[in-house]
Amino acid sequence: MKSGNACYYSEQNLLSSSLLSKSLKIKIYRTIILPVVVYGFETWSLTLREERRLRVFENSVLGRIYGPKKEQIIGEWRKIHTEKLNDLYSAPNIVRVIKSRMRLTGHVERMGDRRGAIQGFCGIPYGKKPLGRPKCRWDYNIKMDLKAVGWGGMDWLELAQDGRWQALVNAALILRVP
User: Fold this and answer.
1) Within 10 A of 109 (CB to CB), how many other CB atoms are there?
2) For the CA atoms of the chain, what is the radius of gyration?
3) Which residue of 26, 95, 163, 175 has the lowest C-beta tally within 10 Å?
């Protein structure tokens, strides 16, 4: 997140420039800033707090891109509300991009044990356990996404082998972040 902020602040003059079109500013965001922010997201274990922080970051970038709007009745300038920003920005939001990792999960599970990639998802790490609450594991987020879609009682390893996995992934992608 720190490197994403650094990238955003280095490009903020471009994003607020009146010389560039909004579509070009969106392309700058999607090709320069977004990849820096989500680098390595396949291994993240997102909490609701982190999802909210990512949405706040994205809304600040979109607010800079779309700029303030002038009220017709009063004649004053005001910031665009989040709902309006979501309507203007038609691409998937940053949390949906990260939650798309469920597709990757299905591919890895269908590879089977012969490739060894599944051990990265379900394996237990070696070494001494730190004090305090254990960190969320990556597969815990998959289970929480499935629970939110209504498939919480099922084992995701079995569901990934099933043909319904793509429908579950699409349903998890449309979930709203509170």
Assistant:
1) 20
2) 20
3) 163
